[in-house]
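Weekly structure sync, notes
Attendees: PL, DS, HV (note-taker this week)

Item 1: NADP-dependent oxidoreductase domain-containing protein
DS walked through the input record. Source organism listed as Aegilops tauschii subsp. strangulata. Sequence as pasted into the shared doc:
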Amino acid sequence: AKMAGSFVLNTGARMPSVGLGTWQIDPDVVGDAIYAAVKAGYRHIDCAPVYRNEKQVGFALKKLFEDGVVKREDLFITSKLWSGDHAPEDVPEAIGTTLKDLQLDFLDLFLIHAPIRIKKGTTPSHENILPPDIPATWEAMEKLYDSGKARAVGVSSFSCKKIEDLLAIARVPPAVNQVECHLIWQQDKLQKLCHSRGVHISVRLDHLYLGSAGLSSLAILLSSLLLRSCRRRLLKLPYAGVFKWVRVYFQKAPMKQGLRRTLTYLSGPFLKI
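Item 1 (cont.): predicted structure, written out as tokens:
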């Protein structure tokens, strides 16, 4: 199977440049999708408790290991700390639940899912929002890094200001900031800041995958003359032109048949930046 390239994090670890995102993949099919993806060459799986399918992901990983398709060290597994678990005492319990569900001993990367804190056990809504205490939460994340349960720690959806504030107090700097980033919203300032401080930008595009465009703005983007021109010149899908400047792409893949093709299009020179 063809495998994508990788990027070196500030921990020294290598993170595969193409990842399979599991957001909004039905629990009944996510296992088959992961099994097919790994057989096709994917080595990075992106999960989160709020996606409500980590147990099924865990069953798929266990089967992959038992069938000899890959070993644990061949995969890079990311999960996230939900906004209701920001209290320092809740952080170890949260990763413990994730590790149990995924049937793993450690995560390659554990992210603060969002810089927003809500009451434990509630859903994101105005009445459930609490004042965040990122320094306290981050200290608990650092302890997970120290323990080896998370071999790298990072954040998601952090702005320039939030990244700067975190770096000012962090003993262990974040390895990754996973954000939405595309031609419509390129986030140049954030990219430059993170690059200058050794924080890897990981691009999340959950609404964009082969055969679908979940947002009207992205539908317009994909059908634009610019991308059609890129497609003609590159003899690739328009996605390849989009992601030439991207750091890491998480493909949400609800169907097996596009996995290998997408990996091919998003590998090689298109992610060598």
